[in-house]
């Protein structure tokens, strides 16, 4: 018996001999995960969930009149400056310190953005007056959910879109800001959304790549801050959110490791043929 199709052989079409399974290979491309490595990678999901939680809590504080927009703007400005210094320090640690010219360009961009947002804050405040509040809340919830779904967590998948994720978060912030008391509240809320959804992920990804231990500490502190802020709004919501964070950071990695034991991908001579051509002969 020969494994060819162009010869007539005295065997059935589905006949194979004992040597057919000698080239059987299992799970040759399977990736083996380590539990703590998966827990570390889940930090991005935890960070983004906490970012959405903090944003919603801050919006609730401002809507209830418990937080003045001046205090939030001042705290956000100080936090942005500290984050910028930390980002520049991390860049300096790998020999890429920003020049004075680039720092001046960043400052001008920040001033232009603040001026532009402040100038259009009355428009943002009255943008959705004709839409009911329930619709605004529903739209904001859907947009924030989409932001979490399309966010770039480091996976190479077609659903990932950083631009779409950021735009959905900003759209949700504009919708929620339009329900605040005045245009100053709307300006501060949109500015805070840019800080937590655009600037903060840049810093956390840099810390994750350069200082993993510091990144884990910041993730834990950020999660605790989100839970403490949510506790002032709803105790039931705090318990449910804490269970969600524990499930994502501890239970889901454990389930992934356990499911790896059941992976059984087989490879052998029955696989589709792959045409591999030597491209060097076409370049000569």
TrEMBL record:
One of its GO terms (cellular component) is glycosylphosphatidylinositol-N-acetylglucosaminyltransferase (GPI-GnT) complex. The keyword Transmembrane applies. It comes from the Eukaryota. InterPro entries: Plno_GlcNAc_GPI2. The keyword Membrane applies. Pathway: Glycolipid biosynthesis; glycosylphosphatidylinositol-anchor biosynthesis. It is a multi-pass membrane protein. GO terms for biological process: GPI anchor biosynthetic process. It is found in: Membrane. The chain crosses the membrane at residues 35-62, 68-87, 107-124, 160-180, 186-203, 215-233, 239-257. Keywords: GPI-anchor biosynthesis, Membrane, Transmembrane, Transmembrane helix. It holds the Pfam family GPI2. Belongs to the PIGC family. This is Phosphatidylinositol glycan anchor biosynthesis class C. It comes from Anolis carolinensis (Green anole).
